[in-house]
Amino acid sequence: MAEFRNSSGGRIDRARPLTFRFNGKRYQGFSGDTLASALLANGVHLVGRSFKYHRPRGIVTAGAEEPNALVQLETGGYFEPNLRATQVELYDGLTASSQNAWPSVDFDIGAINGFFSKLFVAGFYYKTFMHPRSFWMRVYEPIIRRAAAGARAPSEADPDTYDKMHAHCDVLVAGAGPAGLMAALEAAKAGARVIVADEQAEFGGSLLGETSGIDGIPAAQWVEKMRADLAAFPEVRLLPRTTVTGYYDHNYLIMAERKTDHLGRGMGGVRQRLWKVRAKRVVLATGAHERPLVFADNDRPGIMLAGAARAYVNRYGVKPGNTGVVFTNNDSAYEAAIDLAKTGCRIEAIIDVRPQATGAMAQKARAAGLRIICGAAIAGVEGAKRVKAVEIAPLSSDGETVGGPVKRIECDFVAVSGGWTPAVHLLSQSGGKLRFDEAKACFVPNVSVQAETSAGACNGTLFLEGALEEGAKAGRAAVEAVGLMPAQESALPKVETVEAAPIHALWIVPGKKPVGHGKAKHFVDAQNDVTAADIMLASREGYRSVEHLKRYTTTGMGTDQGKTSNVNALAILSRTLSSPIPSVGTTTFRPPYTPVTYGTLAGRDVGELSDVARVTPMHGWHVARGAVFEDVGQWKRPWYYPKDGESLREAVNRECLAVRNGVGILDASTLGKIDIQGPDAAEFLNRVYTNAWSKLGIGRCRYGIMCKEDGMVFDDGVTTRLGENHFLMTTTTGNAAAVLDRLEDYLQTEWPDLKVYLTSVTEHWATASIAGPKARELVGELAPDLDLSNDAFPFMSMKEATVAGLAARIYRISFTGELSYEINVPAYQGMALWEAIFAAGETHGLTPYGTETMHVLRAEKGFIIVGQETDGTVTPFDLGMDWIVSTKKPDFVGKRSFSRPDTARTDRKQLVGLLTEDPEEVLPEGAQITADADGTPPMPMLGHVTSSYWSATLGRSIAMALIADGGNRQDTTVHAPLGVKTLACKVVKPVFFDSEGARLNG
Amino acid sequence: MLLIECPWCGPRDEIEFAYGGEAHIARPADPSKLSDAEWAEFLFFRSNPKGAHRERWVHAAGCRRWFNVERDTVSYRISRVYTGACEPVGEGQ
Amino acid sequence: MADAMMTADAGERAGALSRLFQGGEASTTAGPLTLSEMPVPGQINLRGNPSDAAFAEAVAKVLGCRLPVAANTVEKGGDFSLLWLGPDEWLVLTAPGAEAELSAGLVEALAGQHFAITDVTGNRALFRLSGTPAREVLAKGCSLDLHPSRFATGQCAQTLLARSGIILSQVDDAPSYDILPRRSFAEYTWRWLEDAMAEYR
């Protein structure tokens, strides 16, 4: 048995020993231990080095509030930093090491920082590393990052599985201590849907370390009975090892459940689960955290909180040391002293800053044979890696100084209590407001903003009887609030209550020298190495708001978010400013309550599930054909189809020439399609498009541009009249949902009188676009009954026909400038159509082409792409598309804006074509355009390149650009400065090929 | 994650909705009659209040209906959800 | 031979997962859970004004069941279901291939009224998830409260499952759910469901 482990007592299973390693050494613990309790059992207090000074640090707490004992676990993909040893459940084979210690926790080079500690005062980042400025990135930052490493990030992928789950309940109880259990049972009895979550492995909270009884049975047994009672209700969900970590708007809470961490890593199944809970009511029963006292060198290993010392001995059967001193300003530490003395520790004295100890608790301690020294304080500590002795001195009556004879007491641990801080984090996150309770010397909930109630210690009710009563009341109130009838009231569990004497707030315990003088340090925030002197200095330098203090000194930051330090820091600031605590304020707590792994936040949205990959019905064919895909919105579209190791450019050149000289095929299924029906359909189109629609014949197609009210281009596409009151609109691939939302918006809210219904049919149709001079031949073979002559089936019209045995709609429209047929069949026949086309197309040299070729071909024709040539600041006039804006229609969306002074300017950025002087040079898209050939920056910018390609058809590069006053710059030379070189370009009309449109008819 | 009561589908998470800006800004019946300043007012100017705000939402992942919500921009509390193409502005709660 | 290949079988309807299950049945199990793609059902989108008695009556006559006007509910006719999608929108699910005749019947019965009948058979895939933990599997990606007191057999909803919009409808108390993602989201939705089911294996 390890040296400091008692032979009996506690909730550990001595029949199940576990072996683990810490900093390379092997130790033994038991099932039920935390890493911290197992280390203490082996006499290991020194677990890390501090952030700035690299001072040796020990375990201070027994829970989530731990500032010091941060460890990293395991290696490789299982490596995990920033874990609190006080919360890590021990498992066999666990491997842990200290953070912030290099090369080792016993010999740490960084400790030299301690000798230069004057450099590390409040705001040291801002003061020390300012000059010279160039040193910041190259010198200071790397050094600081190494020295103040905190934790390393894992370098390998995490092999474990994570998950998320939505949940709904009437009452969520956060915390399963005495208040939470009572609340949950009351809610359950009323038939409510209840979730009880607690961060610990076992329910019970503070009761797990309690020695007194409840209702005549040991507290732990009472907890087990409550748990079993709750588990019997079908609508109650009990979640141990689950931290309620975020409280968001409308009673939406996030919980992090650790399902298998206590068994080790790589256990299979789900390791951690993120719960997203919508609760009608919340009962916060999150308990309280003990505060340290701020005395000289209060950070030495072996000095821990009294409640933690009590928890270690009662819950884990571990003595924090052999000989201890208890130092307190309130009664709760007396219970620790009594329990420690009872279980084999020698307690030299209880040092109480209060002038006298006459209350019931003090009497109980005296009855147990304990010595109490009143009106005194620890004025100094001996020992660096472990406390060796403390110096006790009488306190002056105002508590400002120590004087008189100093008494030296040898000890190997000190149990400290500075009072309790209600864990109001979730309440604060919910938007609730706090008030400072002078009598209890802590912040307590004051104003609720959301549907929640605080009960027990987190509400400032720090005695068991009160917590039980408040919990029951909160549970009953919660069910009533959701419209359920509370169960008949039953008697509260009976507990022994010792009346507590009032706490005496002493925010700084004076040392032998004034604070900030001499070598001794009064630590406030151990994790961030912030001392009382730092806070006093900050306030002298003018930091009067607690929010500024936090950012300047870093107090309250880090993984513990100041759970043990915030109130002390605030009180010291208030004391220095001579301003009452409530007027200094308290910082706002933000989620998460304790750190949450990235794995949990990501859940199963990783790998191929990290985003949707929308695929067309012909996707399998593209994959089989070796297509390289491009993301367009969430769609995967074939970008190009490389053959025999072709590069992008080689493949695209081949595909372009195939379409221009033979026949090519594009999967165009991704375009948005909206079916429009109703007697006012044409009028509706008149209002949303810039051009006119009333006279479009049935079976005819028309291109349209849709603007926003500000006159800027929003979307474009071809719309076909299928019947008198029936149209089919196409939208761009990426904008399909946005267009539908916008059109519904107009119909529902601006023009509800219009009789029009919209239905999305994007996914109903699969579209094969066949283009090229040989397109007619191929389509003729596939649809032998269809007259494809230009007269019978002219450009911009639609026919219904049987294609390869399938009922299809064929649209004669073109985005390439070539003779083109877009064949549409229902999606479930898309692949059949595609395969049939290829079966017929083989003899015609049918070439599949991707989006890159489509872009090149349309750019040769000067066709725009919304989102490439436009960016929300471009009007149809800017694009040179005056022809598409009706001058006759009295109104349409965007029309009024065309006469706004800024929109009507003639020198706006306008679309032009660019031809580089060197035809081999292809401009990068996004390149800036200037008037000057070789200006040095800064220089005036005219605009930028929107599209740029190598055109195999033309044997040279082509580009389009938006440049200021582009219309008047025709035939002038502009420049594209690219850093390494500047390319001269001629401004031309943005049509590079077949400007008469002769090829459309084949 | 706000909980928004779709007037048709019932309470749903905010993620199912899209936001449509301030409510009750009707598109002028005849924009050509408006001065540039009046048109700019319609296009660009919104009240952006601290407190009760009437705004438009659409249940994009559900029934695709647009409706109005009165929401406190400080507490995010929703006091009212109502439909109507352009319901006359009432007193907020 | 070439000629034969040029003509596709018009009666054949490819499922949305034919790429993942080439030629095979799209089905998977995990412990008590079964997930299958059902044959592509006929799908008709119906728009109209339910407070117009003539509209409601005409629809009821053709379909042989009431038009569901209560939000998120399903009415069953002989071979088809009528799902409420919105205050003036419904989805009719028919046996595969029955949609054309039914559409024609509806168009005829509604002649002269303002309505929209649209064949959307290609719009969505239909998956069925069945088994005791089905509710929990869905809860991993769906924020609806699926508790039997809130969402029961005969109810439907348009909502999100992970990153995919779906129509969800509970078809029995097993419980079994019909999940209808848009066809292009079908592979993603299937993979997501398979992954979510893994823990029940």
UniProtKB/TrEMBL annotation, chain A:
InterPro entries: 2Fe-2S-bd_N (IPR042204), BFD-like_2Fe2S-bd_dom_sf (IPR041854), FAD/NAD-bd_sf (IPR036188), FAD/NAD-binding_dom (IPR023753), GcvT/YgfZ/DmdA (IPR028896), GcvT/YgfZ_C (IPR029043), GcvT_C (IPR013977), GCVT_N (IPR006222)
Residue intervals of the SoxA A3 domain: 520-603
Descriptive protein name: Sarcosine oxidase subunit alpha
Domain FAD/NAD(P)-binding: 170-434
Aminomethyltransferase C-terminal domain segment(s): 909-994
Any Gene Ontology biological process: tetrahydrofolate metabolic process
Alphabetized PANTHER family for the sequence: AMINOMETHYLTRANSFERASE (PTHR43757), AMINOMETHYLTRANSFERASE, MITOCHONDRIAL (PTHR43757:SF2)
UniProt superkingdom: Bacteria
UniProt keyword terms in alphabetical order: Oxidoreductase
Molecular function per GO: sarcosine oxidase activity
UniProtKB/TrEMBL annotation, chain B:
Superkingdom of origin: Bacteria
GO biological process: tetrahydrofolate metabolic process
InterPro entries (UniProt xref): SoxD, SoxD_sf
GO molecular function: sarcosine oxidase activity
Pfam family, one: SoxD
Record NCBIfam families: soxD (TIGR01374)
The protein, known as: Sarcosine oxidase subunit delta
TrEMBL record, chain C:
Coiled coil spans: none
Listed name of the protein: Sarcosine oxidase subunit gamma
